[in-house]
Amino acid sequence: MSVYSIDNLKEVMGDDPEFIAVVVQTFLEEIPPDLEGLKAAVAEGDRKRAYGFAHKMKPNIEMFGVDLMKNIRSIETWSRSSKDIDAVQPLVDEVNEVLQLVFIELRQDFNL
Fold first, then answer.
1. DSSP-based three-state secondary structure for 38
2. What is the count of structural domains for the chain?
3. pLDDT tens by residue, 35-59
4. pLDDT at 103
5. Assigned domain for 5 exists
6. 43-61 b/e with 16+ CB inside 10 Å = b?
7. CATH classification at residue 67
8. N or C end of the chain, less CB within 10 A?
9. Distances from the Cα of 6 to the Cαs of 15, 16, 19, in angstroms?
10. What is the pTM assigned to this prediction?
């Protein structure tokens, strides 16, 4: 079973393989650095930056049907709280783990 789905993408953009490939390529170019930024911001306790990265990643994660929206929203909520990093680190770790699998699958499925 795949950790992502392009059903949402097809619904919005139509079943255009070339366009979908471009969107996949863009996802693979933009999300890894945003993920690294999120991880660094959380590690540094920079809540404002953590929120920015989580918020920026949200539409792409949703578009690719990756089951991480609850985590992303929780990270955003953490960024506006006074809870310590221990409260959010497992969520960030799970986002990282799942997205690494998404990157691998997308590269394999689209020969990138």
1. helix
2. 1
3. 999 999 999 999 999 999 999 999 9
4. 98
5. no
6. eeeebebbbbbbeebbebb
7. 1.20.120
8. N
9. 10, 11, 12
10. 0.93
Q: By residue range, what is the domain housing residue 45?
A: 16-109
Which pair of structure tokens corresponds to residue 82?
């006074």
Q: How far apart are CA 91 and CA 70, in angstroms?
A: 9
- The answer to whether position 1 is within a domain reads no
**Contact present, 39 and 96 (Cβ < 8 Å):** yes
Asked if residue 72 is part of any domain, the answer here is: yes
Q: 61-108 pLDDT, tens per residue?
A: 999 999 999 999 999 999 999 999 999 999 999 999 999 999 999 999
What DSSP assignment string belongs to 39-103?
A: HHHHHTT-HHHHHHHHHHHHHHHHHTT-S-HHHHHHHHHHHTS---GGGTHHHHHHHHHHHHHHH
Does residue 8 contact residue 63 with C-beta atoms inside 8 Å? yes
Sign of the torsion formed by the C-alpha atoms of 31, 82, 87 and 74:
negative
